[in-house]
Amino acid sequence: MEKTMNLTIRVWRQKNRLDVGKFAEYKLANISEDSSFLEMLDILSEQLVADGHEPVAFDHDCREGICGMCSMTINGIPHGPESGTTACQLHMRHFHDGQTITIEPWRAKPFPVIKDLVVDRTPLDKIIQAGGFITARAGSAVDANAMPIAKGIADYAMDAAACIGCGACVAACPNASAMLFTGAKVAHMNSLPQGKAEKDRRTLAMVTTMDGEGFGGCTNIGECEAACPKSIPLDMIAHLNRDYAVAQMKNFFKPVA
Amino acid sequence: MNLDSKIPEGPLAQKWTSHKFNMKLVNPANRRKYNVIVVGSGLAGGAAAASLAEQGYNVSCFCYQDSPRRAHSIAAQGGINASKNYQNDGDSVHRLFYDTVKGGDYRAREANVYRLAEVSSDIIDQCVANGVPFAREYGGYLANRSFGGAQVSRTFYARGQTGQQLLLGAYSALSKQIGLGKVKMYNRHEMLDVVKVDGHAKGVIVRNMVTGEISRHAGDAVVIATGGYGNVFFLSTNAQGCNVTAAHRAYRRGAGMANPCYTQIHPTCIPVHGDQQSKLTLMSESLRNDGRVWAPKDKETAKKIREGKLDPNAVPDEERDYYLERKYPSFGNLAPRDISSRAAKEACDDGRGVATTGLGVFLDFRDAIKRDGQKAIEERYGNLFEMYQCITGDNPYETPMMIFPAVHYTMGGLWVDYNLQSTIPGMFVGGEANFSDHGANRLGASALMQGLADGYFVLPYTVGNYLGEQGVAAAGKVTADHPAFAEVEADVKSRIDKLMSIGGTESPRSFHKRLGNIMWEKCGMSRTKESLTAAIEEIQALRKEFWSNLKVVGDADSLNPELERAGRVADFMEFGEILCRDALMREESCGGHFRAEHQTDDGEAKRDDDNFAFVGVWEYKGDDVAPALHKEPLVYENIKLATRSYK
Is tRNA processing tagged as a keyword (chain B) (predicted)? Predict the structure, then answer.
């Protein structure tokens, strides 16, 4: 027989960007331990709707841990207590009957709250738009096997490219730094031979945009790595720092862009 | 309705090349005078928007997510097919073409499929150039694996996250164009209608999902790349937001809807856990490279496993029915999806199902782990195993996975000609939203291929050709002040008002669930005349109830997920009926469409090529009028129609 639990949900309610916002508390009964965390929120929504209230707004889409849309801090930890797990992949079996669960939006200055748990993460897109690409016009590519890439390098690039752009690293960081996000993209593209041509330009442009969007600097605290649902390692930040130092040096003598 | 497929003359292998030569071109300096609207930012939409912008057109791109990086293409796990023949195992453009037509149970258009196979190689080149970190061998060359319905290894992959990596590739190209100002990106915007001027698609009406603002956007052409309609079943592997609204609204404005009954039920999903379930999770087909599918031979054994009294590992080999290997020895566990799904259903209907609900079979890696070691299996499928454990709490290295079929992909969609243009001139449809390449069943790893083929290599040519035909004098001439925009905008607003003002007692989610239940029970893996007739009546009744008892809380002028769902469910209600009508009309079994009345003695799908070798296209005739059926005959000049066999 499936096990169920009763819960108290303490969740952030905020009408819009300008509203001050506050916590509200709701009781939920008979939540299956096999349900996902977001299914639990679905049930809360239905309960609120039945009572004539607006449901809690939250971002979510694929519900299989890959789209990066879900974004909530659960009991103080972005994406909740399970390591390497997005909120949508978190299951209720990790909670217990009678527990109070506190849910908040990402708290970071560059991510203003739109409503309840929904925040605006477009600054992350802007960092990518500044340089997070390898220019290769459709139709201009050479044969895919023309340039062998050592397996180790391809694997490393893939480790970095696993980032889902959810912003948990920013939410977890006391400085609201986006270094892990930016570092992962820089490490992915700068390490591949295809990405070498734009390496310095990319690194400088992405860091400049990152700073311009109001993200803080990295002070090596490591909260980002702990919160990252894809377990992207801090090494990516080291990679970024190294490539940034080289790019700046080159830029000093001769502008790279 | 004019269903001229515009297939170019000439031999199959020359059609696309000669067609490209015969196309109208737009001079690079003139391209900046045109505006193209792209709805959707998945593989097809994102790649098309980026490529059109690279060519110099101005593009407006819309997506309902908060970023174009999140479209559901991202969730594809296993891989992307291409006829590179890097494995030297006999692959070729023609073989990929043949496998795809056969896999689609001979219900796809030859010329389109051939082109798909032809550009498949270019896609891999393009993606590698864009920085997609495909899996590689130690020598540095690209690795491949096998997928269902093929006897060659032609699937390229990036661990279990191929869709993510391909989408991020397209997204990075798109982002570059956004940064350059060539693409204006509208996140959190949902297309609610298409605007026609003099019969041509000239724009869209969209809702800003944050502010509720309804706005008009004019363009010289419109590309719809809004994905499939699997969520009409409520539970599916689709993302929560996937919906049919853009395609259905286009249908209501005159675009033909083709083959909606071709829905793919994927055999390897995690079984349903209970009532609170909101979606189903796919376990990649690639797992069938090493996992063996089985159900107990004996009902009693199955019962004991269901009740937790017997450990499946304790079931000896002679009591296991490896039914795919038994029934389809030459393809074994890699039999195509439709066939594998029905075989699983058969075992469960027979009372031999596992999982607490009895709706599950095993996917067992015991033998593979014994053969190759746990480390090798971890390398291949580590993230999938983790995902399985995260959802079910079971460790698949120790106990066999449980799987069951679930709605996954929809082969049907808006009808398009060879140029991917719908029956509305100027409106193009790419990716899963169109019907064109997969016939009645899609092979694994072919959706990513089609999305990117459409986006990178087909639409950038054919949209340009259309714009060239319209002439540079027409560029940017229609603006959003045209009265046609005001008219459609008023329709959209009144519909929202109507949804908000019903004042009933039942939530949109509840209606969605009830609709899904009808669809799954009566129009799911197995369909009959009776079940479909009943489904149509039930859907009509449910629709009436919806419009008289719907409850939408909140308001229309702010972020309101209830209103969003209400609008989508309203469209699913209308669309679900068309799907059932199509399934009722198609008195044969083919691919994902299985009519219980039409099967062979051993339970295989029985096609009727004499009467049903056509594309069924539905034309909207009015709200309370049945849609009209049109037929595009399927002519096979290069492939001989045969009974599909994987035995």
Answer: no
CATH code of the domain covering residue A58: 3.10.20.30
ipTM score of the complex? 0.98
Q: What domains are defined for chain B?
A: 267-407 (3.90.700.10), 483-608 (1.20.58.100)
CB neighbour class for B258 (10 Å; exposed up to 12, middle 13-18, buried from 19) = buried
| Ordered mean pLDDT values, 10 residues apiece, chain B (647 residues) | 96 98 97 98 98 98 98 95 97 97 96 98 98 97 91 93 97 98 98 98 98 98 98 97 98 98 95 91 90 96 95 96 95 92 93 93 96 92 89 94 96 98 98 97 96 98 98 96 98 98 97 97 96 98 98 97 98 98 98 95 92 98 96 96 86
Q: Which among B122, B273, B457 has the least Cβ separation from residue A32?
A: B273
Whether residues A105 and A176 fall in one domain: no
Phi (first) and psi of residue B427, to 5 degrees: -110, 115
Q: Do A128 and B239 touch (CB under 8 A)?
A: no
The structural domain count of chain A equals 2
* Dihedral angle of Cα B222, B225, B229, B231, to the nearest 10 degrees: -120
B171 touches chain A (CB under 8 A): yes
Give CA–CA dist A55/A53, Å, rounded.
Answer: 6
Q: How many angstroms separate the CA of residue B159 from the nearest CA in chain A?
A: 8
Rounded to whole angstroms, how far apart are CA atoms A115 and A37?
19
**Of residues B140, B277, B460, nearest to A148 (C-beta):** B140
Q: Which chain A residues contact residue B511 at CB under 8 A?
A: none
Same domain, A128 and A239: yes
The residue type of B138 is Y
Q: Which residues of B are catalytic?
A: 337
Q: Which residues of A touch B510 (CB under 8 A)?
A: 46
Chain B residues near residue A150 by CB distance under 8 angstroms: 136, 138, 140
